[in-house]
Design goal:
The chain has a seven-stranded mixed β-sheet with strand order 1-2-3-4-5-7-6, with helices on both faces. A hairpin with a 2-residue loop joins strand 2 and strand 3. The protein is built from four helices and seven strands; from the N terminus they run E-H-H-E-E-E-H-E-H-E-E. The longest helix is centred in the first third of the chain and has 18 residues. The protein has 162 residues and is of the alpha+beta class. Helix 1 packs across helix 2.
């Protein structure tokens, strides 16, 4: 499942080499901690940060079948879960987190593009939700996601296959 990245970061430098490997039960703690770290600012801004709940969502929904760990240089750099949508009409992207030191170097774009290539090959739409005001929304919009709906907390987005 691994791949070398050749995408470029915004500053023109090559993004780091990376691999995706299947998630394992022993990864769930690191993923939950990463979620708590990277989502804290947005959740606090929305008045929703809860020290326990922020981790529990990953712990409750972890799936070795659909979760991948992102590694750079053999080290944990993030995670992504990519599964069939609950309605059976495409794929759902969630738990896409990058460690702060891995952000801003083109890694998120490279991983997302690889996942979208898979969806395109299968003719599948991809859905996700992102917190209102999250910087991650810009990444999704750059890669062709559009707003399907939104509420006071989340923006629900979709990207149709190309």
């Amino acid at each position: 499942m691994g791949t070398m990245n050749v995408d470029m970061a915004r500053d023109g430098a090559a993004a780091p080499e990376w691999t995706l490997r299947p998630g394992r039960a022993e990864d769930v703690g690191a993923i939950a901690e990463l979620r708590a770290l990277v989502m804290r600012e947005d959740l606090e801004r929305l008045g929703l940060y809860d020290e326990h709940r922020v981790r529990q969502r990953v712990l409750d929904g972890f799936s070795e079948t659909y979760t991948s760990v992102i590694e750079t240089g053999g080290a944990f750099a993030g995670s992504v879960t990519y599964r069939p949508s609950g309605t059976g009409d495409g794929l759902y992207l969630e738990h896409f987190y990058l460690a702060p030191e891995a952000q801003g170097r083109g890694l998120g774009t490279a991983v997302l593009r690889r996942l979208l290539e898979r969806a395109d090959s299968a003719g599948a739409s991809v859905r996700l939700q992102v917190l209102r005001g999250s910087a991650a929304r810009r990444l999704y919009e750059r890669e062709g996601f559009t707003v399907e709906s939104e509420d006071a907390i989340d923006v629900f987005m979709v990207r149709e296959p190309r």
